[in-house]
């Protein structure tokens, strides 16, 4: 059964509820808070979140901003969030799907085949092609917050981690294509690789 709540975070972010974009989240900070809570998968204190998302505001204003964002989230997603006076978290039984989790889980599962110096095993080729198709663009592409240095740093680190994993997979698949004489497919994938990192010398070799 398809998850009621879906997070498509690779490329421009899109959050769907029952297959439709959530219209009640009218601020980037509300989206960012939701995404960060999902990533952390544990209760986070209100004070931490206020300081994290409004690090240049005084504590009173930061806490007021957090209350406004939580009010917004309650209206749209009360079934998924556990909001108390002390902390906020995703409910343990909340049903959701996130493309980044699928991507990283599959790349981890394929890890031994990707790290092997030899040719990619044939029974891993289709799996790797499928997982790389989950990557249409950068993590949270085009997304930014002007008031939270912490979130911006977390976003960039997450983006770089995912890029590194994807590039390992792309390199292995390009090597496979060239080894079996599928030059056009190899060149197309190398072009995608260069779009992620134009300065990667390994990609220029193909």
State the main characteristics:
Arc Repressor Mutant, subunit A, single chain, elongated, four-stranded mixed β-sheet, three-stranded antiparallel β-sheet, alpha+beta
Describe the structure in your own words.
With 206 residues, the chain is an alpha+beta fold. Strand 5 and strand 6 (87-90) form a beta hairpin. The mean pLDDT is 87. It has 9 helices and 7 strands, in the order E-E-E-H-E-H-H-E-E-E-H-H-H-H-H-H. It has 2 domains: 5-96, Winged helix-like DNA-binding domain superfamily/Winged helix DNA-binding domain (Arc Repressor Mutant, subunit A, Orthogonal Bundle); 99-204, no CATH class. The strands form 2 sheets. A 4-stranded mixed β-sheet has the order 3-2-1-7. A 3-stranded antiparallel β-sheet has the order 4-6-5. It starts with a strand and ends with a helix.
Question: What are the segments in which pLDDT stays under 50 over at least 5 consecutive residues?
Answer: none
| Beta-strand content bin | 5-15%
Distance between the termini: 41 Å
Main β-sheet description: 4 strands, mixed
* Rg value: 20 Å
State the strand order across the main sheet: 3-2-1-7
What coarse outline follows from CA principal-axis ratios? elongated
Secondary-structure class: alpha+beta
Order of helices and strands: EEEHEHHEEEHHHHHH
Q: Helical stretch count?
A: 9
Return the average pLDDT rounded to an integer.
Answer: 87
How many discrete structural domains?
A: 2
How many beta strands in the DSSP annotation? 7
The level of helicity is 55-70%
Quick summary:
This protein is of the alpha+beta class and 206 residues long. The chain has two domains: 5-96, Winged helix-like DNA-binding domain superfamily/Winged helix DNA-binding domain (Arc Repressor Mutant, subunit A); 99-204, no CATH class.
């Amino acid at each position: 059964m398809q998850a009621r709540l879906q997070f498509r975070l690779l490329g421009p972010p899109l959050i769907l509820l029952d297959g439709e974009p959530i219209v009640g989240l009218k601020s980037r900070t509300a989206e960012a808070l939701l995404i960060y809570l999902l990533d952390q998968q544990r209760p986070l204190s209100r004070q931490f979140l206020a300081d994290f998302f409004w690090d240049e505001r005084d504590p009173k204003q930061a806490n007021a901003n957090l209350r406004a964002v939580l009010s917004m989230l309650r209206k749209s997603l009360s079934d998924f969030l556990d909001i108390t006076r002390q902390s906020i978290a995703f409910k343990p039984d909340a049903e959701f799907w996130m493309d980044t989790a699928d991507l990283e889980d599959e790349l981890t599962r394929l890890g031994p085949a990707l790290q092997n110096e030899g040719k990619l095993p044939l029974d891993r080729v289709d799996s790797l092609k499928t997982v790389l198709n989950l990557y249409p663009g950068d993590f949270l592409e085009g997304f930014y917050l002007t008031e939270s240095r912490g979130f911006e740093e977390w976003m960039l680190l997450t983006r770089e981690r995912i890029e590194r994993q994807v590039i390992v997979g792309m390199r292995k698949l390009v090597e496979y294509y060239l080894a079996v004489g599928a030059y056009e497919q190899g060149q197309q994938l190398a072009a995608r690789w260069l779009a992620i990192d134009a300065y990667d010398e390994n990609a220029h070799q193909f």
